[in-house]
Amino acid sequence: MIVAPIPARLWLLPVVLFVLTAPLWLHTFEPGMFVAINTWCAPVAATVWTGLSLLGNAWGILGVTAPLLVLAPRLMWAWLCAAPFAVAFARIGKGLLESPRPAAEVDNAQMRIVGETLHNVSMPSGHTLTAFAVASAIYFALPEKGRIRHLWLFVLAAGTGLSRIAVGAHWPGDVAVGLCLGLLAGMLGTRLLARMDAKHVQPTAWSLRLVALLLGVTAYALVTEAQDFDENQPLQYVLVLVVLGTLARFVQQSRVKP
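Given the sequence above, the corresponding structure tokens read:
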């Protein structure tokens, strides 16, 4: 597919951000910074933070981006191409670093915890990594002209990262590393997208029909199980309607005329 190449200088962005955020992932300011941010976020309703966290959940992001299947399948493929890199980065990081989560080191009475209390495998924040991988993949797959208007994608991803601190699940350093790795995963996904044949965006392509099947599984997962937090279930039901509406439209588009 035709994808505008990412300027060479931007490939340095994840590395530069990783270096600049070193004081965070080295825990220089912890636990004080975590407690301060967690406390600052506490007045905001838990459903706001759990909803933002859903943007870093695989089933959640499939539900949110479902309309791309019919509106802009190339953008759907962009973040799906980034997904393997995001999974690899998250698994390797969590496998190599048995870092404790905030609840394991901070007096729980000093922090707000929403949902399950987690104690280990903290680095990096998988939700933040996923959110930034999706945001950067879609952003760099957009036409270069006017792309800057869609910087809001990164604002949403940043909200997901902040939510992980707000619910008591991650240190700021975990979020910073997730951000850097997510950006890199999204950029790599864009390069993979550029190698795909254009036929994969056609409604009659079997590859796109497999994505539709995946969305069907997504609807089932969203109906049958709370994703990360019980508070997310009402939002999940809304996403199910979005997915089912998308699939209905896709069936119309993909119907082969005799």
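The chain has a mean pLDDT of 95. Try to locate this feature in the token string yourself.
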